Amino acid sequence: MTNSQNLNGKVTHELNYVTANRFYVEIESEITASFTECAGLGVQVDKETYFEGGINDQQRIFLKQAKFSDVTLKRGITNNLVFWNWVNQILDSNSQKERRNVNILVFNQSGETMQCWTLIGAVPVGWKAPSLQANSNTAAIEELTLAYEGLKVVNNSNSGKASTNVKRDGLGYFPSH
Questions:
Q1: By three-state DSSP, how is residue 86 classified?
Q2: 91, 155 in Cβ contact below 8 A?
Q3: Which of 123, 107, 101, 128 is nearest to 26 (CA)?
Q4: Pick from 88, 93, 92, 105: which is nearest to 144 by CA?
Q5: CA distance 90 to 85
Q6: HSE toward the beta carbon, residue 78, CA cutoff 13 A
Q7: What is the dihedral of CA 168, 69, 66, 107, to 10 degrees?
Q8: Rounded to an integer, what distance in angstroms lies between the CA atom of residue 29 and that of residue 155?
Q9: Would strands 141-147 and 113-128 be described as parallel, antiparallel, or unpaired?
Q10: pLDDT by residue (tens digit) across 122-157?
Q11: Structure confidence by residue, pLDDT tens digits, 25-52
Q12: What sign does the dihedral 67-153-164-33 (CA atoms) show?
């Protein structure tokens, strides 16, 4: 957000909007691929509604746990198997299931980082190979679906890189603050 003065000398706030096509995805602070689509990011807080006897014009809302929706990342197929290797490690019963933080960074038209959404403790829960057709000339797109334990959002109005720097504690949990 930037400040400017209008003709009356009052300070107004101009919003610095971003377009949906200016984003990068980093997995553990390393950009691993250019993505064509990132969809599904969201949170829903469960609630319980209580009605008190004798109070007919109000209700009480008690908040419960947050549920984070799965995120689907799409990219063109390359010879880089980083996603399949991560999924394969999850499928291997003898392997430790590695969770990673995933940063989704959105930029304005000047290339400045506007927000960073960090999926905390992300783990792949789905992978899809592209549909292959002999008469098609479109890019082959693979999909990776991630579930995650938490979400952290930061903004950065400077031209530097936004980062949440979220790390697991000694017990394997991510901080709740």
A1: helix
A2: no
A3: 101
A4: 88
A5: 9
A6: 11
A7: 70
A8: 16
A9: antiparallel
A10: 999 999 988 888 898 888 888 999 999 999 998 864
A11: 888 756 666 788 899 999 999 999 999 8
A12: positive
